[in-house]
Design a protein that fits this description.
about 0% helix, mainly beta, about 375 residues
Length: about 375
Amino acid sequence: MPTTVQQDTDDRFNWETIITTTDDFDLLLSRFTFFDDGTTRSEAFENGQLAALTLTDLGPAGAPSDVRPWERIEITYDSDGNIEDRYELRDDGVQILKSYEAGVLRLQQQVDFGPNGTTSDARSWERIETGFDDAGVISYRLQVNDNGVQQFTEYEDGVRRTFTQIDEGPQGEVSNVKPWQSIEIQYNALGEIELRYQVNDNGIQLITEYENGVRRAYTQIDEGPLGEVSDVKSWSRIETRYDLDGVIEAKFQQNDDGTTYLTEYENGIRSFQIREDKDMAGNSTDTFDWDFIAFNYDQNGTVTSKETLYDDGDVTALLYEDGVRAFKYELDGDNSQDWVSRETIYDAAGAVVEVNTYDFNIFDQDPGF
């Protein structure tokens, strides 16, 4: 096997030495190049075709020359000359391995380890694995972070369709570095977000729905992952709805005590709210001495009126001016008073200035409520 040595003694090229080995038919077997900057290039051939390539960023005494951001690159090729594998060891200890089929990238793995297997910790993650389809288009991506959080992304035709984050350590135990256990996001065929589902450590579930990338619904559920009530909040369910521009329209809240709150909005500003002492099926829970309380608000969200219907049939209506109570009208629904209706008038500071009682229903007189 003839060997040829070339040396650039006059420093006319960017290399110092090239050592070439050929077979008896003058086909290349190997070629080694030592460059002026300390990097090296080692090539292995089969039947005269490049089969393996190794690049190193080392100085003349074996110490890193550090002219490249990597220490070593190894590449192998198939019999057709297509790349099969590519391994790169970077100066910061990160390793990158790429696998190919028929020259098409199918898998890429990045590991944040040093050359001896120790964690280099140059990145905030331990490992990233990316898969590609037959055409070399990305199909999935898995990332395991140093804090134990795992992130998994799935693609269709190169478009992201799901993104899942799990707060677990490498052995599956809960790392608990985040206030949540898992987050799952779904996207449509255009890559626009459609759904976001989050389970918090305290059992609270958060569900956000989107249309054309705009938030349309947001649901909060106070239940554990198996459906049991976690009861960390004073409510069991909150549902919020938004218009086509993502502006809040309505909010419904089911409380643990059986009451429900329904709030309506105009242009994102609260305009009406009704509180009912009933469950979600409309049955009276009778937790409080009232049946419902209704509020009205002006265009600035300032309260203008409040009406309360009590279990005994009594009715109270409050009217406000600039958010300060101005009038109160009361109806004795169960005939427990010596009057049928009562009127209370307040001054600008909300203090009582006058009280009047009547033997008829002043609500029939339309007091402006």
